[in-house]
Design goal:
Radius of gyration: 16 Å
Strand order of the largest sheet: 1-2-3
Distance between the termini: 39 Å
Order of helices and strands: HEEE
Shape: elongated
Number of strands: 3
Number of helices: 1
Helix content: 10-25%
Strand content: 25-35%
Largest sheet: 3 strands, antiparallel
């Protein structure tokens, strides 16, 4: 299981007593998570992205200069 998938599968935001966690895979790179607590319900969308440019990294292209 990838680190991304592990994070999505255990994510609980600020819900103190998680009663239910539903994880929906939208694609290989995105998930929808519904976390239900005792009194509230939260929904989150996670999408994996790759950093391809950074002005402070010598390993990546600088898009400013």
């Amino acid at each position: 299981m990838t680190e991304f998938t592990k994070s999505v599968d255990t994510y609980d935001h600020d819900v103190t007593k998680v009663k239910r966690r539903e994880v929906f895979r939208c694609s290989d790179r995105s998930y929808f998570v519904r976390v239900s607590g005792r009194l509230s319900e939260f929904e989150f969308f996670f999408q994996l992205a790759e950093l391809v440019a950074d002005t402070k990294s010598s390993d990546l292209p600088d898009t400013i200069s």
